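Record pair follows.
FIRST:
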Amino acid sequence: MRKYVTELAGDTAAYMRPSFWPTTHDILTPYMQYGGPTAFKLRAALAATLVPTYGIYAGYEHCEHVARPGAEEQIDNEKYEYRNRRWDLDAAHGGTGEAQGRPNLGPYLKVLNQARRDHPCLHWLRNITFHSADDENVLVYSKTGGGAGDGSETDTVIGVVNLDPHTLRETMVNLSMPALGLEWHDGFIAHDLITGEQWNWGSRNYVRLGVGAEPAHLIHVRRF
């Protein structure tokens, strides 16, 4: 993932503009078939923040994960028949809960889209920097760009994503502070745009992500 996005944001950015989709109408890998809602959430977070343009295939909100026998694609999808997904059931439940026992990631996608609207650094491709975590299953990256409309000179967002949908992982995240526009000894307020929580962070920080918690942090860097 890191190698691919680095390539997209490099020389190829002059002639190829990526659009990330967590799934499509004819791609449903075992990762999505068996990863549960956690896989759907983390893939959406990656698609929405790694590149400026992303898309969601109809039914993603309900974590449609059942494959057509013998193929890695959704069963009974629109290539074969009309699908009435009953979006009205989600609306009847206020758009925040589960209708008739089915998942509803609509509110989660709304949070991601709000973050994209509020933070201009997520509108750009070439401004990505990858950081590291002690656990290789955790992807860490940041984007820095124009002001966020709050009086700050720069807008910086950090993504921390547990790529393992089956395991709750605890690890330390290692940030390159100069890439965030800070000195190595500086600290900052880490405001999670997904949960609304905030912590005091520095160059090395503890995270706990995955099943039973959120699979991703989307951190807005607020300077002291």
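SECOND:
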Amino acid sequence: MKFSVHVEVRGLPGIADPEGRTIERALPALGFSGVSSVRVGKVIAFDLEAADEGAARVAAEEMCARLLSNPVIQRAEVSIHSS
């Protein structure tokens, strides 16, 4: 079966996010007030062939642990949808 996989990677709480801080400081200059705690992450989307949803999830989580994220400083959330 073919599955659509979305992985959202974000920094763990307490880990510095310089890109988020830069955005947070720039927004008031652009007229946007009241914004705080900006965090920047990334989304990785791909299709995956697997026997079932469980196998797809195991494969995607292994990809996260080995390549797509750094588990020491990041959290990866995997969403699986059948195509």
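COMMENT: The first helix runs from residue 18 to 26.
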